[in-house]
Structures are given as C-alpha cells and as structure tokens.
Amino acid sequence: MGNIVELRQVRKSYGEGTPVVTEVLHGIDLAIAEGEFAALTGPSGSGKSTLLNIIGLLEHASSGQLLINGEDTAQLGDAAITALRGRTIGFIFQFHHLLPGFSALENVMMPAIIDSGWPSAQAHDDAMRLLTQVGLKDAAHKRPSQLSGGMQQRVAIARALSLSPRLILADEPTGNLDTHSANDIFELLQSINQERQSACLIVTHDPGLAARCQRQIQMVDGQLLNGP
Amino acid sequence: MLRLPFAVMVSLRYLREGRMQTVLILAGVTGGVAVIIFLTTLISQLQASIIDKTLGSQAHIVLKAARAANRTTLPPDQTAAIIQPRAQALRAIDQWSAVARLAEQTPGVLAVSPMLSGAGFATRADANQPIAMMGVDARAYQRIVRMDKYLQAGRFDVSGANAVIGVELAKDLGVTVGDKIRLVTMDGRNDLFSIAGIFDIGNRDLNRRWVFISVKVAQTLLDLPGGITQIDLRVADLFAAETIARPLQAQTGLSVESWMQTNAQLLSALNSQSISNNLIRAFVTVIVAVGIASVLVVSVVQKQKEIGILRAMGASPQRIMAVFLLQGSFYGLAGSALGSALALGLVQFFSRITRNADGSALVSPDLDLSVVISACALALVVGLLAAALPARRAAKLDPVQAIRV
C-alpha cells in the first residue's frame, strides 16, 4: 500500500528575516500509509499542530519536501493547493469550528458546495447519509448552537468526510469532550477508517486513545521520536 | 434550502446573520439614493420650468444687423475726441435669405424665423399705446415661440390685415377678437388691422407692447421693402446656444446674441443650482460608500474565523472575495430599489403640496427613468467599490491565523 503523505526533512521556522528566528520543526521525516490510523502525541508546544497544518496544506514548510499522494506540493500554485486540500484532506478541529449561521446539514454539505460551487442534490443526499452515519439524522436542520459539544464534533466529523477524503487530520478532536463522548468520537473515527479506508492522523493528549491507534508517533521539541 | 451558488448563499446568510447591521446600512443607502433621485428630479424639473417660462417666449439665438457706430479717421492715440453714439435707425440684414439658409444648415439649429420689428403706436378712438410691431411669418414664428400655447382668444393668424395683440394692450385699448385697431409708425404711416387673436405670454410688459402682423405688411408700414431686421433661431440643445452663436457671428458678420448672453443672470442661477445639487450628490455618495465599507470591514473582522474555516475547506481567495463583493452589491441594489420607491413617494407628496400661482402642480409626480437608472447604477458601483477593500482583506486572510483567533 502506498503512502498518502510523505515528509522529507521538513523544517518550519517562524520569524524568518527578523533577528529572532524560532525553528519549531527540525527536519521531520514521516510517512503515512493509505488507510493508516495513527496518533500523533507529545507535550504542548512540541509542534504537533504546526506539523498537522503543514500536512494539511494550511501552512508552508520553511524547507524540505511534502508529498501528498506522491505529488510534490512545492511545485503547486495556490489554486492547485486549495483544490488539493479541498478534495484530498478532511479537517477535524478541537473546537469543531462549525459555521454558526448554517444548519448541521449545510455545514456537512459545505465542502461539496465549495468544490462544485453549487449545492447539488447529490451533495444534499451525501450529507444526509453522513449525518445518519454519525447518528445525527434528526438534528440535520439544527444550528450548531442547538447541539451539544459531542454532537457538534460529530457534525464536524461528517463535514470532514464530505468529499470522501483519503486523509483525515484531526487536531485533538476529543480534547474538549467528556470521557464518554470522547470515546464515542474515537470509535466513530475508527469505524470510518475501517469502512472507507481513509488514513487518519489524530493529534491527542490522551495516552489511552493513542494506545488504541495502529501506530503512535511521538513528538518532542519539534522532532519525532520514532522515525518515518 | 435554496439552491444558490456558494458565494451568493454565504453572502445572503451573512447579511441575515448581521440583521441589524444590514437593516441600518440598507436604510442609509436607501436614504442616500432617495435624496439623490428626489433632489435631481426636483431641481431638473424646476430648472426646466424656469427655462420654459423664460425662454418659451423668446428665440434661443437672434441675428441682427450690426449697430451703426461713428468712427474717427484720426489715430486715437494722437488725438483727443469725443465720439457721440449715433441714433439707431431700422437696419435691414443684408442678403437675409442667404443668412437664413446658412443658419438653417447649421448643425443643432431646429428652426429659423425672419422678423421685421419696429416701433409704433396702436390707436383706437382716443386711446393710443406705444408698441413694437413684429412682422412675422406665422408658421415659421410658431416654430420659435409656440404662440398657440399662449393664446387666450382667437388664432395666431397674421395673414392680410390681421394682427395678434397681447392681453394688456387689448385691455388698454378696450378691444377684443374681431375688433379693429390702427397701427401708426413713427413716420406717420398707418393702417387698419383686425384683431385675430389675443395672447398672454406671462409678461405684462410684453403683453402690452408686442403686436404681431405679417412680414409683408410690416415691410410696407416700416418702409423697409423686402427687408427684415432680425432672424430668430431655435436650437435643439439649449445650453449649446452660445457655441452655435459664435461661429454664426464669425460667418455672417452680424450681431448674434444667444439667450445665454441676454439671460446671463438666469444662467448663473441655474449653474449655481446644478453645482449645489452635484455637491449634495457627491457628499451623499461618499457617506453611503463609507457606511457600506465600514459595515463590511466590521463584518470581515467578525467573520474572520469562519473565513479561515471556509479557506481550510478549499474555498479560494477569489470566492471569499466574491462573498463580500456580493454583500456590497446587495446593499447597492436593494438600497436602489427601496430608495427609488421612497423618491417616488417623496416626489408625489411634494407634487401634491406645492402649487404654481395658477394652481397647477409645481413639479410632475413622475420620476425620470434615466435619473433612476443612473442613481441605481451609481449605488451599485459605490456598493462594489466600497466592498472591494474589505473583500480583499478577507481574501488575504491566512486560514491558520484566522482559525486561531
């Protein structure tokens, strides 16, 4: 099975061109295989979120190579990066980051609407199916403010799956939830990974959840403790 | 859910979310558009009414023979001389039919009417009044001044021994249509005329002085056989009268006066009105633009996180920009529609409460479509331009930074 993500000697520095340059990633080599279910752990400030943002094409690496699906992203222009991000990667954030003015259904449809420029009937049906899968069929027309924290995170997961991405990046998806809801969300991600064969990279502080992943990647001070 | 394109759907939702902001700025744009349409309509209608009242009874351009003047043959810098003005006798325009043809062929000239005018008296029994005899071709003169419009009685018929006089003169002489009056020139030549019509041109002095007769009869009475003393012109564009008059003067060597010269104060008043109107429009436009821009700048700050999320989901900077440009356009379009309706209401209300001295409406209750269209186009352009800066700012937001806010 090939790699969906490959990082080669990726470095990230902030404050370049100023007297104070802070390097937060020191030459990361990492590969995530198609369908892999991995946990990224490490103390706060170790560079986990930065690494996730770089893999998710939200930030540029200062140096090194990032290959998504075998394609060197350094060769892509802004429009191609935006399109690749929209179609290949699904994001789940710690604070769900749902659009407050839109219903749960519209939030789940949004990636498809952005992709095609239009809310198609197909996008509507797919979104309803995803909401059903995460157990929120009856809450489809509710606004995020009308949902509990766990339900909001489920909507965020459904949204991340909207375009059937081959890679799901989750930044502490359970960090803001109680133990019971956190377990539910984790199990949901596991089942999605098994059903859809979408690779998942989950940032978590919970060693129990990390232990349930196929692979644990540990990060300390901008470096990985276990190799690619 | 309405199936609308991404940018339209998101911008409408943002407008709905910021309901109070939307209502307030829409009220501002509506007021601005209404003020622009209402003021422009009111001022242009009042100006048209003033112009019509003032110029309705006079030619736009008058060509006359140059006035006679005394000249000294001695060099003026070496001699001291007092030159007295010459008494002005009636002077005919040389080759007037060629001049009239030239004037007719001049671009922008709608009508040409030759006229022979001279001073005299109108008498009936013991009463006599000083008058200006105006020898005209009725049909040609009607194209310069719509005399039909001003007739109180009878017809504008100057054929044969018919004359058309003003209402004040008719009162002074105690005559009406069908009665006879005698017209006497300064040389003592006279003839008897039958009154075919009585006009009220809205100017008491002219109503007392003007007497219209036929050119041929005037030529005999004033002893100017075949001659005429002035050529009246009507032009298509009133405000081009001066630019038409100057070349005609150069070509003919005649004294050529446009209404803009003879009514310089009126023109200055009209210009001042137009400048005031344009200033008000400019200020209102700037205020509306600043209003829209400030609301959208605040909206971009409020929606920063959402913009970041949309960008993370694959929305391009162009699409984000479109979301805010569409909001600006919406303010412009909706404000135009509501502002036009408000302006129509204001014009109708104003038309009902303000009246001329004769009881007719001071302004028409209708809007000029071209004014409405140009005000709406202006509002749309202002909406788009005002939204451009915040839209650019939104499009440039770094998704990671935006989400972290």
Q: Please summarize the sheet with the most strands of chain B.
A: 6 strands, mixed, barrel
What is the straight-line distance between the termini of chain B?
30 Å
Question: Radius of gyration of chain B from the CA trace?
Answer: 32 Å
The low-pLDDT segments of chain B are: none
| Largest interface summary | A-B, 31 and 25 residues
Secondary structural class of chain A: alpha/beta
In the predicted model, the low-confidence regions of chain A spanning at least 5 consecutive residues are none
Over all CA atoms, what is the radius of gyration of chain A? 17 Å
Widest sheet: strand ordering of chain A? 6-7-8-3-9-10
Number of E-state strands of chain B: 10
Helix coverage percent of residues of chain A? 25-40%
In the residues of chain A, how many domains can be counted?
A: 1
Largest sheet of chain A: 6 strands, mixed
Outline of chain B, from the CA principal axes?
A: elongated
Quick description:
Chain A is of the alpha/beta class and 228 residues long.
Describe the structure using short key phrases.
heterodimer; A: 228 residues; alpha/beta; Rossmann fold; six-stranded mixed β-sheet; four-stranded antiparallel β-sheet; 7 helices; 10 strands; B: 405 residues; alpha+beta; 2 domains; six-stranded mixed β-barrel; 15 helices; 55% helix; 17% strand; elongated
